[in-house]
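Can't paste images in this forum, so I'm doing it all in text. The chain is below; anyone willing to post the predicted C-alpha cells underneath?
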Amino acid sequence: MRVLAALGRLPRVVLSGIAWLLAALAVTVGGYRGRVVRANLRRAFPTWSVWKRAWTSLVFQRHFTQLLVESAKLFTLSRRDVEAGMVHHNTALLQRLHREGRHVLVAGGHMNNWEWSALTLNQNLPHRTMALYKRLSNPKAEALMTASRGRFGLEMVRTKDGKAWMDRAQSGDPVAVIMGFDQSPADPLKSWWTTFLGVETAVFYGMEQWSRQFDMAVVYASIRREGAWRYTLHYELVAENVSDLPEGEVLDRCLAKLEREIHRDPARWLWSHKRWKHARPDGATLHPRHHHAAPSDHVTPPLTSNPSPTHLSTHG
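Text version of the structure:
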C-alpha cells in the first residue's frame, strides 16, 4: 500500500507506461494469479474456445495492472480530476429516494475501478454515505486504504461495526450504504447458495439482510470504462420495498445485473479472486435463479481497449 501511495506522485502517462511493463512481465510468468484466473474463466465459460479464454485472460492482466496504477494515482489525484474521471448517471433516482426519506443500499461488484468510484460517491449522492470494509491484517495498510477512500467524505466502517453504525444512523438523515456482494464469503454454512455465471456459488447474505432489517431501497451501481482514466457509473433501481419480495429476490436481481456487466465486458471483472473456493455443504439449499443475463451481450475486448501511454494526457 505504501508503494502504491509513493507511485501516485508520478504523472499518469508514466504510470500507464509502468502498467504496460508490469502486464508484459506478468504474462511472461503466467500472469498475476494466472492459474486462478484461467480456472475461473473455465468454470464460468466452459463453452468458449481455448483461444477466447486465453485472450480474455490476457486482457484481464493488462486491465489489472492499469487498475494498480490508477489506484496509486488516487492517493494524490485532485478532487476535480477524481470527479472528472468517474461521471455518475441517473443520480435523479437517488435524489428522489432522498426526498422521500429513504435509506438506500447501493450494491456493486468488482467491475472496472471500484476504488475510483469510492472517492466520488459522497459528492454525487444526496445521502450521507458509508462503505463497509473488512479489516486488513496490516494496520498501516488499512489506515492508508481508509484515508484514501474517505478523503472526500465517504465514511469507512468495518463490517463487524456496520450494524451498530446503522442502528445509530437510521433515525437521522437518509443514508446510503455501499456494499459489495461478489466476493467469496468466509463461511459457506452461513451463505446463500445459488448459481452465478452458471456455477454453484456461495453469496454474502448481508445485502438481503440489511435491506430488509433497515427497510432500505436497493440500487445497483455499474461501472463502465469509457477510455483513458475515464469511467461512468450508472444507477439502476433494484427494489424499493424489499419486504414485499420473496427471500433472495434482491440477491437474484443483483447477480443478474452483475452477470450482464460481465457478459458485456468480461475481462473487467476481478477474475483473480478465488470466487469458487467453497463447495456447497451437505444439506445446504441451492436456491434457483429467476433472473438471468443474456450471454449474447458478450463482446470480446481488444487488448488496446486499455490505451497505450501515447494516447494519454501527460498532466499528473
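Residues 105 and 177 are 5 Å apart (CA to CA). The domain at 82-299 is CATH 3.40.1130 (Glycerol-3-phosphate (1)-acyltransferase).
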